[in-house]
Amino acid sequence: MAMGKLMIFLLQLSWTVHLVTAIQRKYIFPYGTLSGDLTLQEGDDETSKVLALKRPLYFYESQFNELYVATNGIISAQDLPMEKQYVDDGFPTDFPVIAPFLADIDTSQGNGAIYYRVTESPTLLNRVAQEVHRGFPGGHFTPTHAVIATWENVAAYEEVTRATGPSDRLNTFQAVVAYDENDSYALFLYPEDGLHFFGTRPKESYNVEIELPARVGFSRGEVSFIFSRMEGPYYSVTSNEQSLKNLYQVGNTGVPGVWLFHIGNRYSFENVVPASVGGALATPPPRGQEGDDSTTAEYPETFEEEPDEDYPPIADPDFLSPTIPEFLQPSHLDHDAFPGQARLQPYGGDLPLTSDPQYRENDNHVIQYSTETKETCARFQQQCSQNADCTDYSSGFCCHCRSGFYGNGRHCLPDGAPHRVNGKVSGTVIVGSTPVDLNSVDLHAYIVVSDGRAYTAISEVPEPVGWALMPVAPIGELFGWLFALELPNSQAGFKITGELSHDVTDVTFYPGNQRLSIVQTAQGLDSENHLSVDTRLHGDVPFIAPGATVQMEPYKETYQYYPSVVRSTSVREFTVVSAERGSETFTFQLHQNITYHDCRYGLRAGPETLQLTTERVFVMYVKDENILRYAITNKISPVGEPVQVNPCYSGTHDCDTTAQCLPGEGQQYQCQCATGYMGDGRNCYDVDECVEGIGLCGANAHCVNLPGSHRCQCQSGYELSGCCFQFTIAACNPLNIKLAQYIPQIRSLSCPYLDECRSQPCHPQATCSNTLGSFQCQCQYDFQGDGFQCVPSNGDTHCEHQRDSLQTTSPEGNVDGAFVPQCDEQGQYRALQCHGATGHCWCVDSRGQERAGTRKPPGTSQPNCDEPAVVPPTQRPETVCERWRASLVDHYGGLPGPNHYLPQCDPQGQFNPIQCYGDSSYCWCVDRDGREVAGTRSHDVVKPACVPTVAPPTMHPLPRPDVTPPPSGTSLLYAQGQQIGALPLNGTLMDSERSSTLLALHGSIVVGIDYDCREKKVYWTDLAGRTINRARLEPGAEPETLINTGLTSPEGLAVDVVRRAMFWVDSTPDKIERANLDGSGRQTLFDTDMVNPRAIIVDSSTGTLYWTDWNREAPKIERSSVDGHSRKVLVKDGIGLPNALTFDTATRQVCWADAGTKRLECIASDGTGRRVIHSNLNYPFSMVFYANHFYFTDWRRDGVIALSRDSSQFTDEYLPDQRSHLYGVTIATTHCL
To answer: Signal peptide: which range, if any (predicted)?
Structure first.
């Protein structure tokens, strides 16, 4: 017996040891030409052709439609720069990177191969889905596409000599990026014996023996904001050589060498989350007995915990998954003899996430891993809404909506705003003995959240079933419960369920015992924050005679709350009144189960039972329109709660339907308009962003107003994020990536062709015609409009259309409390408008907009609209928002364009909670000071929901849009996005204590800058405003716009003090221009043989012009005379990204700083005497020379760096308090040098 136990133990130990070895090369994902792979060209720095993705991939929170595979062990979402710019640098990178092994790899001369492809193979997708399910057991992921890249037997770059010869150290590794419509995951696979080198030597190590370790991880790349640029988030898997060696020795999926990461989400994503699989090592099943869970198919929606659920496989007869290696296992062994061991999952079991595994022995002497598998906010915070906070509890985490929002934490909506529900109704209903089919007819609901009124309309309902369904108000009662008016110590259903729930309601009618099943599934919020609900009906209902009416009395219903389930049971009465049978009373019994995903970790808040009080039920069937309507008023409260007397709870308040009623003491309350509406709370008006110019869309988009928001509908045939509007701030670097790449009319390389009609962009009564790069909407016959909005061609005016649409919103003809405009005989707005519910009257203009100062409360005389309105003088000072806006309007010459940023202010002069940039859909929320609220940025067609949490102050200090000159003496002037800073020099040292803001230019992106020492004026280019400007360095001097036409991306700028002229580069049309210092005499010097012109300087003493062109394929530095003659290439070899350019007046040399080669070099004007001043820069952008020192702005440090020409050493550094990228820099001296 003892010998038998020993044999079993030894056999078990041998399996365990076998399982902790790395995955075998033959078991990684299939690759090679036989698998349909493309092969990357051999070389040291190659990039694949673009991999166009059929559907977008989300990396971090950004959407990408293409990928590139590069030699140096990375996959990127944009075309890569030269390797000099990234291969020797650590994380973060400047561009998006997925790096299974970032190093200087070389496949020249047959040193391995690199394969890649996009696949939709069900088996491969199944394999990834299962890994994700095991690594992230709480999620639902069904990948639709995967990108597989494999580096097979690739070598490190080495300088081969006769003495050394080629190296035999070769690496093999693989990356798999899989995604669905919402999430993206990455698998890194390092097979056993696959890694033989762990770092590479820099190419320019100058014989210094140094090896830089490879980098493994993810980098979002630089993120561009309105006024600044900053490094995006990144995640590193390794930190040193030992952690690199651990790549194939351990893993975080249960298999050494296999690593899994969640790398992106459509809605909210902070940073990469690694998988974490822990527990005992798995015991392999016999070959052929792996079971159904060896592959995983789509995960069905489930609303109750069902652990260890089996998922059916997706069949792929063309491929046999090599997931599970073949193991020898005696069939007679009993699995139960080994406590604590689970059966083998693909790859062979569960291992913890660690690069330093720790082993322990249990009572059975089985080697195990130990790990913490708790779900925490640090790992899963992205599952919370962007308007929610994540809280860790002892066993997990929960999400909680922030103040001003409501929901279950995973889905949050703004307080106070009305809500809409859209969906379809399907099924078969038997009326009497006649079955009637409902084939996906439309359902629309409108809920006035402020008082709990829910209106539901179902269209295209056939007449027999339309009359019979009138008593079935429970179809609309779900929406009443979700968004009921909350009394104290209660909460509406949406705060519990969020956007996902499943409601099964059984209705039994008496006395006929007909039974009807109602199944309603809430499927989530759409792009406009409307809830999508699918409704299915099946069963019998009593016959109701055509023309009859149904009356239902108010009722109260008790809801019982359990984890993940809410239940209710009630008996209702309804009365049918018909001409044939008179008045008849019937009853029905209702059983309702609502299931949802509950957060089981936190303490459950709220009572176990609540009471839903339905004070009013109105039902009707409109025969002529085949529309079934329900109107229900709901309140939710604790059971037996006494009636609340506050008007907010009783519903007797006079707040607008688009306002939130805030109860006070006794009968007191306040009304607050919801986001996207303006007014005093009792009268709130939708802000028509399209008319008011607040939400202007670009030339390639159409503005569609929405209640409380607006939508920009692309018309150009390109994705909105990056192609619909001309200036993409968050997704593009406007300086390192040519702006033209994001203008489809100029370059379409980065914008894939789309069939826009598939997304149904047109009005339902319009037809969509797709064209190359665009589409066209045309209203159908008997309708008129622009195709995005179509109205019956009966001559309705805007006033009539608005009036009629409001009058048909509710079952009773109009929404209670909503203002309906009055139109005259010609269909125009009457000059005098009155609110029938509140009694207020006011005058309007021809557009129906209220004239300020004309509103009169009820009980007073009506305003005389024939007289000009007398606007009472304001008693408050001008606010920050108003002064900022006025300064920018003046800055733009009184005519701001669609590409200009203007702050949006509310009627009180405070910042609107939501702000948008120019004509784009780049919008964000701000706090009371106008500062961006983190995590609220949106590039979607629908703007983010922003609600102010505190009342804004009435006055703030404002950076004035005029000059505050620096102290006397010599100063550096630098551009920092929306401002020009002044940095005094004390000799050659920078005096940071006396630094100041020379000029605040809100809404600008100042790039190029230079100084006229004769007239003491500073000149600059504004990339956002597309202007060239100047200002005198005198107190109170204001900016002067010199050129505001014909500019696209003005960058570098140079002033010729002697000839009184200025020169600049425009990097989109690729040209160099000149003009007199007052803007006159403008002419083009060069517009050919340039790709990416950046910096420009002028040597006034000789009349020579110098400029850089950082064309990736052939970067160069050129020169010519100031009149455009004698053009010549000065430098073309050994440069990468020549950003900065200056002139050393002492040595008469041209000097440049290169962000690619990291060197600062100088050369004589005739091309001789080239020398390296410094060879280890970070990321220089602009540079100026003064007093034997170079001063350059650096994007890695976000500051100004000083370097001595003579010692080649850094001598000083200045980092502004406001950390963002610095652009141009120049020297302002007291006299001309």
So the answer is: 1-22
pLDDT tens digits, 880-928:
788 778 777 777 777 777 667 788 887 778 888 778 776 666 777 777 6
Q: Determine the Cα angle at 1206 with ends 1200 and 1208, to 5°.
A: 55
659-693 residue pLDDT tens: 778 877 777 788 887 766 777 777 776 777 666 65
SS3 state at 1046: coil
How does DSSP classify residue 643? P
CA distance 123 to 319: 7
Please state, as a whole number, how many other Cβ atoms lie within 10 Å of the Cβ of residue 427: 18
Phi/psi at 15 (5° precision): -65, -40
Q: Is the dihedral of CA 416, 422, 427, 430 positive or negative?
A: positive
Sign of the torsion formed by the C-alpha atoms of 926, 931, 933 and 939: positive
Reference 87, options 74, 78, 96; nearest CA is 74
869 secondary structure, DSSP code: P
Measured in whole angstroms, the distance separating CA 577 from the mean position of its chain's CA atoms is 54
What pLDDT digit, counting tens, does each position of 87-139 carry? Answer: 877 788 888 999 999 998 999 888 899 999 999 888 888 889 888 988 888 77
pLDDT tens sequence across 568-593: 888 888 888 888 888 888 888 888 98
Structure letter (DSSP) for residue 932: B
Q: Which residues touch 451 (CB under 8 Å, ≥6 apart)?
A: 485, 633, 651, 653, 657, 661
How far apart CA 479 and CA 448 sit, in angstroms, is 11
Count Cα atoms within 13 angstroms, Cβ side, for 165.
Answer: 2
Label each residue of 266-318 as H, E or C.
CCCCCCCEECCCCCCCCECCCCCCCCHHHCCCCCCCCCCCCCCCCCCCCCCCC
CA 497 to chain centre: 24
Separation of CA 358 from chain center: 39
Reference 256, options 322, 157, 189, 159; nearest CA is 189
Consecutive H or E run containing 619: strand 609-622
Q: Decide the pairing of beta strands 531-541 and 419-431.
A: parallel
User: 562, exposed or middle or buried, with CB in 10 Å at 0-12, 13-18, 19+?
Assistant: exposed
Is residue 149 within 8 A of residue 68, CB to CB? The reply is no
CB atoms within 10 A of CB 278: 18
Rounded Cα distance, 997 and 1021, in Å = 17
Segment holding 64, helix H or strand E: strand 62-70
Q: In the structure encoding, which two tokens stand for residue 704, read together?
A: 């569609």
Q: What are phi and psi of 1074, to 5 degrees?
A: -140, 160
Answer yes or no: are the C-beta atoms of 1076 and 1063 closer than 8 Å: no
780 contacts 766 by C-beta, under 8 angstroms: yes
Identify the DSSP state of 739. Answer: G
Closest CA to 351 of 238, 259, 262: 259
Cα-to-chain-centroid distance, residue 893: 33
Measure CA 235 to chain center: 19
pLDDT per 10-residue tile (average), the chain, 1233 residues: 48 43 84 89 88 90 90 89 76 89 89 92 87 83 92 84 64 95 93 88 55 87 63 84 84 89 88 68 32 32 32 30 29 31 30 31 32 65 78 80 82 80 91 87 85 85 88 87 84 85 89 90 83 91 89 85 81 86 86 82 66 84 85 83 66 73 79 75 71 58 67 56 33 30 28 53 72 62 65 68 62 54 86 83 81 82 76 60 77 71 80 74 72 65 52 40 80 90 93 89 86 94 89 88 90 94 91 95 94 92 93 88 94 90 93 91 94 90 94 87 93 83 91 81
Tell me how far apart the alpha carbons of residues 1090 and 956 are, in angstroms, rounded to a whole number. Answer: 47
Residues making up the chain, counted from first to last: 1233
What the block records as the tokens of 44 is: 């040291």
